[in-house]
Specification:
By secondary structure, the protein is of the alpha/beta class. It is 47% helix and 16% strand. The chain is built from 21 helices and 24 strands. Helix 5 runs antiparallel to helix 11. The radius of gyration is 44 Å and the shape is flat.
């Protein structure tokens, strides 16, 4: 890939942002060295690996490479006999543990993430170094006693000697021999040896070795001759301990050196995995998607390179997503050159950079900020001439700098490359610049090179219109606000807005009209035609946006309806399952009673024929009750009527499982005559059943129910309520249960004095929704509850 284009299009800044998501230096180095590839298979695989990482984080968002470190340098040092510090050994251990954990994650889910598993499968997991380091060092980096038998013995002897030494010196501190001469009653250390602080004037009265004195000279720190031998022995044991620790660490480093290649491979493969993780996190923050990379499909006659460029809702990755205006950049099958015109600061340069930079990112395996379904060809190289190419060192003007760069691009570019020119031919006389721009563009078009050009020259508009393979495009400008909209319109050249802007800013009409009179009438007609085309396109866009908004609202309504239907189905299953369990219990009780009756008849030597017939019926009933309850699924296509509901249509209310006739229509709700009731329901709750029926004329007094689909539940509690409150709540609950189609309601009124129970059962006799009622069974509440069975 052309290195100058990488810098010009700011690919290096994308990589800098990518490194912010990397977990350790090895993966950051890989991110910074990432380059767009020109191998279609490799680039497509990288994109798929990033997609797998995003899928992993969707299910396991806390997955990381753990405490991995870039230990390649210290591991290489062990091959030269260097003994590592304990913290460096712990870094190696942490890195190998991370490699083992990553391997296990993808080994267990290799069917879900086969590409990431292929990377993780190269991680070494059986070097034995983790166990070796764990047996040698604790988590604080201290060598364990169990690292060797000699070390354990030396430390044990050192501890005994140390204790004896301190005990001897503590006795000296409190003895009459030394206490009068001490500056302070304490034992301290100097140069690794235990000493006593004595007064300077007592120097000749205490037989000792002087090790130090205070800054004032009033205190001497001395080692009494009585403890010199113990101090020497303790010091020797300390040196022996240190030497044994060094020997142990040297042996451990030698073991690491033998596995240096494996540890280095672990770091490199962890860096590869972490780079995919970083790419996934970056893609999520960019709200990016995976583009399709496709090969060139050149025309048989060589007239077209066969490039694919379809970037929908594309955004520049370095701009804030909230502020950038997405663009749709798409070339049809016959086009491979795009000429963009429009006002200054209108977004032409950003559009060119967006196309080039997104192509580079896709070829590097990075997801790009575009809409799903976007696709782009894989280019061998991308060239760009954007910005001020003036060079003071080379004494080149802006125009000379551009031409020097363009010469190099024309020498190197081929049919499967992309060339980007910003303000082609600028920086010189307008007439010569326009001629040069058309000549350069013609050169690229004849060679079938994919080219994106931004220009102010009106001559290029006509060239693009008349040349096969070349398409006009424009950046829109809002004449009302006198500001660019940053929207890209492909197929139409940019309009000349100078006179319109001048008039809107208040320039005298006489001056504006005089200027218009000097223009070619054909050009004026063309500008008027462009104005009308742009106006019609704006109207079309507005209508499309409104249609998309309506579609989104419809999808949300469908999702809400599906969720509500699932909740109703769950409740239906619960009710039926409870009834099934109760029926099974009743059948079991009946079978037990029949067994007892059979025994009594047998003892009485009575015939069992009648009882056997009843037993057969019970078995049939048991089989029927034991049948499993099947969840009903409403096809998604049935959530909407095939045509709009009309007055008089016969419909089915799915939530009530009842049929009726539409008697009134609203924007979102309809009124349906169901028997003697009129029910209001949403359009999405209806299913067309057949042809239109005569609209029934309901009596004026017929009640209209505002239907709500939620079931009140199969149980209502009236305990601790006053009689009038309890009866009002009971009536409301029974009405709602009847409308919801519940088979029964369990009414909990408690035992108490029995007054509330009597009122409830009196209501059972007069309520129009009640088919029959009965006292609850002992296991259902006994006299404290009543079961009301509702009419169907």
């Amino acid at each position: 890939m052309n290195t100058k284009a990488l810098k010009t299009l700011e690919f290096d800044k994308v990589l800098e942002r990518l490194t912010g998501y990397c977990a350790f230096p090895a993966s950051k180095a890989k991110a910074l060295s990432l380059q767009p590839g020109n191998d279609l298979e490799v680039a497509t695989r990288r994109l798929a690996e990033t997609a797998e990482a995003r899928a992993l984080f969707a299910l396991q968002p806390t997955t990381t490479i753990g405490g991995a470190r870039d230990v390649r340098e210290v591991v290489e040092a062990t091959t030269r006999g260097v003994v590592l510090a304990t913290n460096e050994l712990l870094d190696i251990k942490a890195t190998l543990i991370s490699a083992r954990n990553i391997y296990r994650i993808f080994e267990q889910s290799q069917e879900q993430y086969p590409l990431l598993y292929e990377i993780a499968s190269r991680l070494p997991v059986d070097t034995g170094l983790v166990d070796a380091i764990s047996k040698t060092l604790n988590d604080r980096g201290e060598v364990l006693d169990s690292a060797s038998s000699d070390l354990a013995r030396i430390r044990r002897e050192s501890e005994i000697t140390h204790n004896r030494l301190l005990e001897r010196m503590q006795r000296m501190v409190s003895s009459k021999k030394y206490a009068p001469h001490l500056q302070e009653a304490l034992v301290t250390q100097r140069d690794g040896r235990y000493v006593l602080p004595i007064k300077a004037e007592s120097r000749n009265r205490v037989k000792s070795v002087v090790h130090d004195q205070s800054s004032s000279g009033a205190t001497l720190f001395v080692e009494p001759l009585e403890v010199v031998e113990l101090n020497n022995k303790w010091r020797e044991l300390q040196l022996g301990e240190r030497e044994e620790e060094r020997r142990i660490l040297a042996a451990l480093c030698n073991q690491i050196a033998q596995h240096a290649d494996a540890v280095t491979l672990a770091v490199e493969q962890l860096a590869e995995v972490d780079l995919r993780f970083a790419s996934a996190h970056y893609a999520e923050d960019l709200k990016a998607s995976q583009p399709e990379l496709v090969p060139f499909k050149p025309a048989k006659d060589g007239s077209n390179p066969g490039v694919t460029l379809r970037l929908w809702a594309a955004r520049h990755p370095l701009l804030e997503p909230e502020s950038v205006v997405p663009i749709d950049l798409e070339l049809d099958e016959s086009a491979y050159t795009l000429v963009i015109t429009g006002p200054n600061t209108g977004g032409k340069t950003v559009t060119l950079k967006t196309a080039g930079l997104l192509a580079m990112m896709a070829q590097s395996g990075l997801h790009i900020p575009v809409q799903e379904g976007s696709a782009i060809s894989l280019f061998n190289a991308i060239y760009a001439d954007i910005g001020d190419e003036q060079s003071i060192e080379q004494s080149l003007s802006t125009f000379s700098g551009h031409i020097t760069n363009i010469i190099r691009i024309l020498d190197e570019a081929g049919p499967q490359d992309m060339v980007i020119f910003d303000e082609l031919g600028a920086g010189t006389d307008p007439q010569e610049g326009a001629a040069l721009a058309m000549a350069l563009l013609g050169f690229l078009v004849e060679r079938g090179i994919t080219t994106l050009v931004a220009t102010h020259y009106p001559e290029l508009k006509g060239y693009a219109h008349a040349t096969p393979g070349v398409v006009n495009a424009s950046m829109e400008f809002d004449l009302e606000s006198l500001s660019p909209t940053y929207r890209l319109t492909i197929g139409l050249p940019g309009r000349s807005n100078a006179l319109a802007i001048a008039k809107r800013l208040g320039l005298q009409d006489e001056v504006v009209e005089r200027a218009r009179g000097t223009l070619d009438p054909a050009e004026l007609r063309a500008e008027d035609l462009l104005d009308e085309i742009h106006r019609q396109r704006d109207l079309t866009r507005t209508a499309r946006e409104a249609a998309e908004e309506s579609k989104t609202e419809a999808e949300e309504l469908r999702a809400e309806l599906a969720e509500r239907l699932e909740a109703i189905e769950d409740e239906r299953l619960e009710v039926l399952d409870a009834a099934r369990r109760e029926a099974l219990q009743q059948v079991g009780d009946l079978e037990e009673e029949m067994r007892q009756a059979r025994k009594e008849l047998a003892r009485a030597r009575q015939p069992l024929d009648v009882l056997e017939q009843v037993a057969e019926k019970v078995e049939e009933l048991e089989e029927e009750v034991a049948e499993p309850i099947v969840r009903q699924h409403i096809p998604e296509a049935d959530l909407y009527p095939e045509r709009p509901v009309r007055l008089g249509d016969r419909v089915k209310l799915r939530t009530l499982d009842q049929e009726g006739v539409v008697t009134a229509l609203g924007e979102e709700e309809v009124e349906v005559q169901v028997g003697v009731l009129r029910v209001r329901a949403r359009m999405t709750e209806l299913q067309l059943m057949g042809a239109q029926q005569p609209v029934p004329q309901a009596e004026p007094t017929t009640p209209v129910l505002n239907y709500t689909p939620q079931s009140p539940g199969v149980e209502v509690s009236l305990r601790a309520m006053r009689a009038d409150e309890a009866m009002e709540k009971l009536e409301r609950h029974l009405d709602a249960a009847y409308v919801a189609g519940l088979p029964f309601v369990r009414i909990i009124h408690g035992k108490g004095t029995g007054k509330l129970r009597e009122m409830v059962r009196k209501e059972m006799k007069v309520n129009p929704h009640i088919e029959r009622w009965e006292p609850a069974k002992p296991n259902e509440g006994g006299d404290g509850a009543t079961i009301a069975y509702l009419k169907n």
